[in-house]
Each structure stands twice: as structure tokens, then as C-alpha cells.
Design goal:
- The protein is built from 16 helices and no strands.
- The protein is flat, with a radius of gyration of 21 Å.
- The chain is an all-alpha fold.
- Helix 8 packs across helix 9.
Length: 330
């Protein structure tokens, strides 16, 4: 089966695609799977990882929203995967590689969304970026400290998925664009659902470029990437669409990301700050996995690893256990 996949890739993929047989390999050599390519194997390893399962209880934008249809970090990840596959399919790139990168791109995200990332970036002397942490998760923390031992191409795409990243493959570039297309459009949808925005408040020039609803905007973006990147050694949008997407992104940062429910954001900041201080001072109370990290990489790194691994619910429960008096306690 794997050899058939190699044959299909050689026959049908773009000369600019990363073929599975051409992977630069893994950090540690291991016996190859007889059925799956290395990129397919990476995808499966990510899906069955603990950090992937935890994404279902991590915030995308809105904390513990009232309603069943808001994006979580997991549904965002699946959304990015779908868009990335559509881009890869249209450009005859390696869909398996694009999917693996997309599924792993946010594994290192903190609880409480970008609020948590800002808190750890401010507190940690070495800084904190969720893209770097996602790579650390797959390299160091998963499988009880053994890591997932993913291929270079998937690891490169994960750490370079942000807007300023420079992925070495076109599949990685597809994921980077898919991430922006996904979070901007579905965060708009969630903000309207939550009452933070009205449809008519969106920048009219950007709406005219992309379309009036989520489906139209996503389809318009994917088609634009296809028309401007097909057969080329790059993956990009037209200048008009790229500028319109940036306007929507800036609008969302100004109107939603920085302003939505300030009280909850401040509570999350105080909670994570107190947890960071507590475990920095009492590092002997870290779980065994992170205590092992501490001995190798220091207290700050171990505490950041532990806190960023938490789901929203778990962070709240740990905070309550440590700081909220219980009935009958002395």
C-alpha cells in the first residue's frame, strides 16, 4: 500500500510538492511502517496523542460560552485541517503532510486562548510562543517524555505556522494560510453569535472582497490561492485578498480579541499568574513528567510546560484546590 502511495504521488503531485518518499526523516531512526507513509504515520500519532485530546477543552476565543456551537481549540484545528487539505488538493500538494501539520499546529496552546499565551510570555524569562511550545510538545513532552518522533517536514510546519513563520514546504505554507483563514472567519461567526459584533460592523471593503458570510469568505480565499499559486513554487493569496484578510484580522484584534469580556480575561490572567508563582516556588509539587523536565531544563521551563498543557477546566480545578478554602478546612 505504501508503494502505491509513492507511485500515485510521483504521478499526480506537483513537482513543487513534498513527496512522502523524499522526507528528510525523523530525529531518531526507527523501523518504517509497511502500510503507511511517514506523513500518514505522523498524522496518526498526533490524533492519538494526549495533547490532541486535550484541545477539546481549550478555549479558542470565548471562555466557557453558553451554547454548543462555539469553536474550541479542537474544532478550530479540524477546521484548519479541512481548509489546508482543500488548498493542498487544489494545488496538487501532499494532503497527508498538510493534514499532519494542521492537526499538530496548536498542540502547545495554553488554556484560555491567547490570554494564557500572553501571561506566560510575560512571566517567563525565556518567553513563550505557542508555536514553539507545539514543537516542544511533539519533540519532548508527549509519550511521557519520549516525544512523538515526527518527521522534519511536519515539525517544521508546526513551528512555522504563524503569520511570520517561514515553512520549508508548500504544505506548511498552506497550513499557515489555512490557520488565518479559519480563525478569522469562524471567530467572526462566534463573535456575532455571542453578541460582540453585528454583521454590518465588519469592514465593508473587506466584505466586498471576500463575501458576506463565512462560507463565501472561506471559498473565496481558497479559490484565490488556487488561481494565484497553481503551478508555482509558492502558496499565496493575491495582493487584494491578502490585504483584505489583514484588515479583517486587525478589526478582530481591535474589536474582539483585546476587548471581549475583560472581566473573564483579567480573571484568567490572575489565575495563571498565581499558578505560575505557586509552582515556581513549590516545584516539588509538579507532576513527575514535569519534575523530570525541571532537572534537565530548569524550573521556568517545567512550570510553563505544565501550565500550557492544562485545559481550561483543569486549570480552574487546580486553582480552586490550591487557593479556594474548602468547607471544614482549617
Amino acid at each position: 500500500m505504501k508503494e502505491k502511495t509513492y507511485e500515485k504521488e510521483n504521478a499526480f503531485l506537483s513537482p513543487h510538492a513534498k513527496k512522502s518518499a523524499e522526507s528528510a526523516g525523523r530525529l531518531r531512526e526507527e523501523t518504517a511502517c509497511t502500510m503507511r507513509t511517514d506523513f500518514q504515520r505522523d498524522r496518526d500519532r498526533i490524533i492519538y496523542s494526549k495533547s490532541f485530546l486535550r484541545l477539546k477543552n481549550k478555549t479558542q476565543v470565548f471562555f466557557a460560552p453558553d451554547g454548543d456551537h462555539y469553536m474550541s481549540r479542537l474544532t478550530h484545528t479540524l477546521d484548519v485541517s479541512q481548509i489546508a487539505r482543500s488548498i493542498a488538493r487544489g494545488l496538487s500538494l501532499n494532503e497527508d503532510l498538510a493534514e499532519a501539520i494542521a492537526l499538530g499546529h496548536d498542540l502547545g496552546h495554553t488554556p484560555f486562548g491567547h490570554v494564557g499565551e500572553r501571561v506566560l510570555a510575560k512571566l517567563s524569562p525565556s518567553g513563550f510562543k505557542h508555536s514553539d511550545q507545539s514543537l516542544r510538545v511533539v519533540d519532548v513532552l508527549e509519550k511521557d517524555g519520549k516525544g512523538l518522533n515526527l518527521t522534519f517536514e511536519v515539525r517544521d510546519g508546526i513551528v512555522n505556522h504563524t503569520k511570520n513563520g517561514r515553512p520549508s514546504t508548500l504544505e506548511g505554507a498552506a497550513v499557515s494560510l489555512a490557520d488565518r483563514i479559519a480563525y478569522i472567519n469562524h471567530d467572526i461567526e462566534d463573535a456575532i453569535r455571542a453578541g460582540f459584533l453585528q454583521e454590518e460592523e465588519l469592514p465593508r471593503d473587506a466584505v466586498e472582497v471576500f463575501g458576506g458570510d463565512t462560507s463565501q469568505r472561506i471559498n473565496s480565499a481558497i479559490l484565490d490561492i488556487f488561481y494565484h499559486s497553481s503551478g508555482q513554487p509558492y502558496v499565496r493569496m493575491s495582493e487584494e485578498k491578502a490585504e483584505a484578510l489583514d484588515r479583517l484580522r486587525s478589526f478582530m484584534f481591535e474589536r474582539v480579541y483585546e476587548r471581549s469580556n475583560k472581566l473573564i480575561q483579567e480573571s484568567a490572567e490572575r489565575m495563571l499568574t498565581q499558578l505560575y508563582t505557586y509552582f515556581t516556588d513549590r516545584y516539588e509539587e509538579l507532576p513527575p513528567l514535569y519534575y523530570a523536565v525541571l532537572e534537565r531544563d530548569g524550573v521556568d521551563r517545567a512550570v510553563c510546560d505544565y501550565l500550557s498543557s492544562m485545559t481550561d477546566k483543569y486549570a480552574i480545578s487546580v486553582f480552586k484546590r490550591l487557593f479556594v478554602p474548602r468547607e471544614g478546612s482549617v
